[in-house]
Amino acid sequence: MPEPLSEPLSEHLLEIRDLRVSFRTRRGPVTAVDGLSLSVAPGEVLGVVGESGSGKSVSMLAVLRLLTNPNVTVSGQVLFRGRDLLTLSDKQMRAIRGQEIAMVFQDPMTALTPVYTVGWQIAEQIRAHGQVSRKEAHARAVRLLSDVGIPDAASRVNAYPHEFSGGMRQRAVIAMALSCSPALLIADEPTTALDVTVQAQILDLMRELNADGSAMVLITHDMGVISQIADRVLVMYGGRVAEDGPRRAVFHGPRHPYTWGLLDSVPRVGGPRLRRLPTIAGMPVSPGSLPAGCAFAPRCRLSHDRCEERPVLAAGNGDAAHRDACWLPPDDRASLRLTARAAASDVQDMDSEAAS
Ligand SMILES: Nc1ncnc2c1ncn2[C@@H]1O[C@H](COP(=O)(O)OP(=O)(O)OP(=O)(O)O)[C@@H](O)[C@H]1O
Ligand code: SF4
Ligand SMILES: [Mg+2]
């Protein structure tokens, strides 16, 4: 019997509403995720970017109910196919993880157990979610390993994870994800630890998974990766959404000063060489001391009185799907970006003159 729906059906595959995650620490409460709302449509790739500590991993671990820290408090709603994952039993959640939602993390050992062979682990995953004989599951594991480019899969299937290289382990984890054709794949920095060639292969595999209909939330520091694979982009800062929208809109008409900084930090392939790589001045905000107003204000060259109030995430003029959380007038963003860039460049020139 299908589970009764505890929430009204959402048109989205995944819809996160006002997710908050805080940790009780010895130094006081730490708010790692502060009212995150996002959605992913079936088959869509959402790229999530943000500096280290912006709450990307913690929010996805909360979605998957993998935050086991006893000092954590999670609130909000995580609607997956209309059901709030935060209210499901552990058993219901286990059935969803690995079958409807698959995960790939930066460290593939998070998903692999060192004491079992890679093939056994893939076969068990297949058997856990379908009526398949041990022999058939093993044969499928070999095919999957071969599909993800593991050479000599028929014999490598019996190897232990430590006998695989980092790239091979990551492929094995992707093979596990492929084994259940998940409706949603959550991938957290899946290519960061890998060399460039293997990175490209892993991205190709993820594209294939997406072409077969899986939606994806892809977390990465790498704007280049996002620009290649994402349909939509979400920029996080201080546990909040700074900006989200269709990829083209965010790359070609970024609206939030933090996104400007991120994009200006990316060297352009084939473009004019920058005299120096701009960086975003100032330190990332600490989740232990989030300002009441705009979290980016201490680093923003355009902050003004109103920024002491927390900006709401809203669409500017034009595209309703492109939203940002900033008080600057929506019509003036392009010229204000140039102003902010010029100010940053003046400060860098002064810094380098002082240093020489
Ligand atoms: N168990 C914990 N106790 C206290 N604070 C935590 C805990 N886990 C995470 N945090 C804090 O939550 C914030 C968000 O962490 P998170 O791992 O989500 O960042 P991230 O955006 O994934 O960064 P990175 O890009 O480095 O992976 C960080 O400031 C981190 O220090
Ligand atoms: S709300 Fe204010 S401080 Fe925040 S990004 Fe916009 S201008 Fe800067
Ligand atoms: Mg992380």
From TrEMBL:
Its main location: membrane. Gene3D superfamilies: P-loop containing nucleotide triphosphate hydrolases. Keywords: ATP-binding, Cell membrane, Membrane, Nucleotide-binding, Transport. One of its GO terms (molecular function) is ATP binding. Pfam families: ABC_tran, oligo_HPY. CDD domains: ABC_NikE_OppD_transporters (cd03257). The keyword ATP-binding applies. It is a peripheral membrane protein. Residues 16-263 form the ABC transporter domain. It is found in: Cell membrane. Belongs to the ABC transporter superfamily. This is ABC transporter ATP-binding protein. It comes from Streptomyces plumbiresistens.
